[in-house]
Amino acid sequence: MVGFWHDKRVVVGISGGIAAYKAPALIRRFREQGAEVTVVVTKAALEFVTRLTLQTVSDRPIYDDLFSLSQEQDMGHIRLAQEADLVVVAPATANLLAKMANGLADDLLSTLLLARLGPVLVAPAMNGAMWRHPATCRSVETLKSDGIAFVGPGHGSLACGDVDTGRLVDDTVIIEAGRRILEPNILAGRTVLITAGPTREAVDPVRYMTNRSSGKMGWAIAKAAVRAGAEVTLIHGPVSQPPIAGIQMIAVQSAEQMYHAVQDHWQVSDVAVFAAAVADYRSKYQATEKIKKEKKGNQLSVEMIQNPDILASVAQWRKEAGAGPLLMGFAAETGQALEKAQRKMVRKGCDLMVVNDVAEPGVGFDVDTNRVVVLDQAGRNLSWPLGTKNWIGTQLINVVARVLNGQGMDVMTEAPPDERVK
Ligand code: C5P
Q1: Is the distance from the beta carbon of residue 266 to the nearest atom of ligand 1 less than 6 Å?
Q2: Domain shared by 277 and 145, yes or no
Q3: 160 is a catalytic site residue
Q4: Residue 248 lies in domain
């Protein structure tokens, strides 16, 4: 499968802690995602994981000996250090961190790390007391100021039997951290406001009206925006999506609450993306007590009044202020989607409109995929084939970054076809 890691060269360095037994799974996962993995181990690591296992999972020779003429000829350590897109050390022991922090180079892995100019990611794993020891803290501080990236350690049960901080984080977490390092920060220094999910409009203390929005599209956009280096605020209705690390999340229930939360944040944002499926109407009266069928009989009317249109309001406030964020709206339509969306964009006053025809299979509410077209005020449009919401989120953030940088939509680059659905 062609994906982010396709053809990326990754050096996985393994130092000698018990967590080294997890390194083969990490190598396998990197390779499954298309990376070419070269393994460099310390002598101590080979006490925990065999050369044969590492060679089999990486499908390459293993490098461990600084003074081996054959290994040096095959792949010199300077070349290894220079050519890799990313060097990942997992697990990184306290000893290795101390050596790196002090520039020691007495074996192949530490020498390679000293010769490395490009990105290095370390995933420490050790006993909790070792992790908290002032010497290790000094190493970590020095390495961070040298530009070395850290992921983990995690908290949980350790090999020594303690429950403490010191676990090697999961391989998926290491790979995601690596991806963040390699992806360009196209929204660095930018603030992005996103609305997502449905709203819930109360009728009485136990009943409400809502819609089928899952929040998946907004979540995908928020994750793409963080990866792009933005400062993200996600204002969302009731959803069952997991929290996103490193962003400000504001949970609301009703359209009115979402409106007020957006009102508090729009001015400090460079971009506002309105992916929420906001209820157009709410019950005019919210009963303070549960509505009883004994009282209402066999017919119940609920009088509805219109909710504020959040996107249109921000567009109006921006007009009055003479400045404000780039506004991206969403239009879920059934049939003649483009024409309807174009009119909606003009009516609401946003700059970009993301259109999906929700009558199409695999598109719209509560599925993991979507097919969208982005329209701009100049009448241009960009369309992509059916793709995962995560992939589309990344494309939308690319568009936003280009528009913010004054490049417009016409310079979009297509991603590899297989990235679209996975
Ligand atoms: O009018 P419609 O609901 O189709 O518009 C959809 C777009 O407007 C979405 O971007 C949605 O988040 C936004 N919207 C809003 N406030 C509303 C209704 C819609 O911000 N009350």
Answers
A1: no
A2: no
A3: yes
A4: 191-419
